[in-house]
């Protein structure tokens, strides 16, 4: 089934409007909400609109519904395997530590940020340039140098 040129231009126009909305969503969300609500708005607009645009491209430009059912099954199977792969890999990849590895770059970034937040004179750029072991030692020193009141030692009974 062939469509006219105007049909494709109309679909392209819808896709451009959806692009504008998906770009404007993260720009408008901070003005409307804050915290987790803002993140939810941004994610819903980004992924929701991306799904709608993908569906429109598949249906209108790729003509997938007109192809044999095999193509639909193949696409569905690939998507299911991709989602399964993400579900199994994401818990380990999105953490700073795994069973057999440690993400020292992320740990160093977090440590530098925490030290800079505690001490406003701390040079975050120098911290980032240091190797992770040196940053970890510096963090231990800064924790140990706090002027916390000494605990009173119990007096031995005679």
Q: Topology of this protein?
A:
Layout: H1 5-32, H2 36-61, H3 69-93, H4 104-118, H5 124-129, H6 132-144
Short description:
With 158 residues, the chain is mainly α. 72% of the residues lie in helices and 0% in strands.
H/E element sequence: HHHHHH
Overall radius of gyration: 27 Å
Would you identify the regions where 5 or more consecutive residues have pLDDT less than 50?
none
Range of strand content:
under 5%
**CA-based shape:** elongated
Count, helices: 6
Q: Report the count of strand segments.
A: 0
- Share in helix: over 70%
Please summarize the sheet with the most strands. none
Total domain units: 2
Rounded mean pLDDT is 79
Helix/sheet category: mainly alpha
Distance between the termini: 101 Å
What quaternary form is this? single chain
Question: Overview of this structure, please?
Answer:
It is a single chain. The longest helix is centred in the N-terminal third of the chain and has 28 residues, at 5-32. Helix 1 packs antiparallel against helix 2 (36-61) and helix 4 (104-118) packs parallel to helix 6 (132-144). The protein folds into two domains: 5-93; 104-142, no CATH class. The chain is mostly helical and 158 residues long. It is 72% helix and 0% strand. It contains six helices and no strands.
């Amino acid at each position: 089934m062939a469509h006219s040129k105007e049909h494709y231009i109309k679909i392209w126009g819808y896709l451009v409007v959806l692009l504008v909305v998906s770009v404007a969503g993260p720009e408008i969300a901070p003005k409307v909400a804050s915290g987790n609500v803002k993140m939810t708005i941004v994610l819903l607009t980004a992924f929701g609109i991306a799904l709608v645009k993908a569906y429109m491209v598949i249906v209108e430009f790729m003509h997938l519904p007109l192809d044999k059912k095999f193509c639909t099954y193949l696409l569905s199977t690939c998507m299911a395997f991709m989602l399964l792969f993400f579900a199994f890999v994401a818990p380990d990849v999105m953490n700073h530590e795994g069973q057999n590895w440690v993400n020292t770059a992320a740990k160093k970034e977090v440590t530098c940020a925490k030290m800079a937040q505690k001490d406003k004179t701390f040079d975050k750029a120098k911290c980032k340039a240091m190797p992770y072991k040196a940053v970890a030692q510096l963090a231990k020193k800064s924790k140990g140098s706090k002027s916390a009141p000494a605990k009173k030692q119990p007096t031995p009974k005679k």
